[in-house]
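USER: Write out one fold?

ASSISTANT:
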Amino acid sequence: MKINWQRKLTSRKLWIALAGFIAGLVIAFGGSEDAAQTVSGSILSGAAVIGYIFGEGLTDMANVKKGDDGNE
């Protein structure tokens, strides 16, 4: 079975779970709640950028396959 990495890496569930796990580790190892919030916020912001880039790339690929390059 082949894993669809694009779909996995753009999954909001994955990024929320990862941010929660890392924020928990920060607190467990003596970090403050503020540090945990900063780390988890940074992860989710990065995930939004990654999702946008992948989404735009997929849209561009679909347009190229249809022969529509976006220029009129």
Remarks:
- Residues 33-66 form the longest helix (34 residues).
- The radius of gyration is 17 Å.
